[in-house]
């Protein structure tokens, strides 16, 4: 089972490698302010990295994709479902 810390590291890697957004671990709670294109790239990255499918309805909940911490918690929730 993936821990929150592991999930945060994996999300950080997605952000840096696919979106070219540098993320400092001390800032995991900070708002990333992703635009729609970055959000779509993030979703694709999450689906590949975590082996999950993100439903379109989830995109209507922007709180899931606000910070590295919230994205990581969302990914862990998807793994459990």
From TrEMBL:
Domain of life, per lineage? Bacteria
Name this protein carries in UniProt: Acyl carrier protein
Q: Which Pfam families match?
A: PP-binding
> Where in the numbering of this chain does the Carrier domain appear?
2-79
Q: Give the source species.
A: Thiogranum longum
Task: Give the InterPro entries listed for this entry.
Answer: ACP-like_sf, PP-bd_ACP
